[in-house]
């Protein structure tokens, strides 16, 4: 017997309802037009761009895969563990081991860059 998973519109409605949010309140929290939320919840053909999907997933504390109906597990997948992150960042130094302080600095710098990039993208959308 196959189980039919819910799609994006159903997941969004369910998550919003569990938080007891109106479409208007969710739109305000996400800083998007209320009509966009209505459109997302009314049609299977209206799936947001990646950046907005990530923003919605972060807001509700779920994974993008859960929002899209690819999994029934709402928990966000674990990011790389610290060892994997340090290994990934190590290529910058030519393979030398990074100190904890260096690894933390690189992570923070990357997060800052991503936030600035997202802010610039929002400004261009306006």
Automatic annotation (TrEMBL):
InterPro entries: Cro/C1-type_HTH, Lambda_DNA-bd_dom_sf. It comes from the Bacteria. One of its GO terms (molecular function) is DNA binding. PROSITE patterns: HTH_CROC1 (PS50943). The keyword Transmembrane does not apply. Residues 12-67 form the HTH cro/C1-type domain. This is Helix-turn-helix domain-containing protein.
């Amino acid at each position: 017997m196959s189980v039919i998973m819910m799609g994006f519109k159903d997941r969004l409605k369910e998550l919003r309802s569990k938080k007891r949010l109106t479409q208007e309140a969710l739109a305000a929290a996400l800083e998007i037009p209320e009509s966009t939320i209505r459109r997302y919840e009314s049609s299977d053909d209206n799936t947001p761009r990646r950046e907005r999907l990530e923003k919605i997933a972060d807001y509700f504390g779920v994974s993008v895969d859960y929002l899209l109906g690819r999994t029934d597990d709402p928990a966000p997948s674990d990011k790389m563990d610290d060892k994997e992150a340090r290994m990934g960042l190590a290529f910058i130094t030519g393979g030398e081991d990074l100190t904890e302080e260096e690894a933390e600095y690189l992570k923070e710098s990357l997060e800052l860059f991503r936030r600035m990039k997202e802010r610039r993208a929002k400004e261009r959308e306006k």
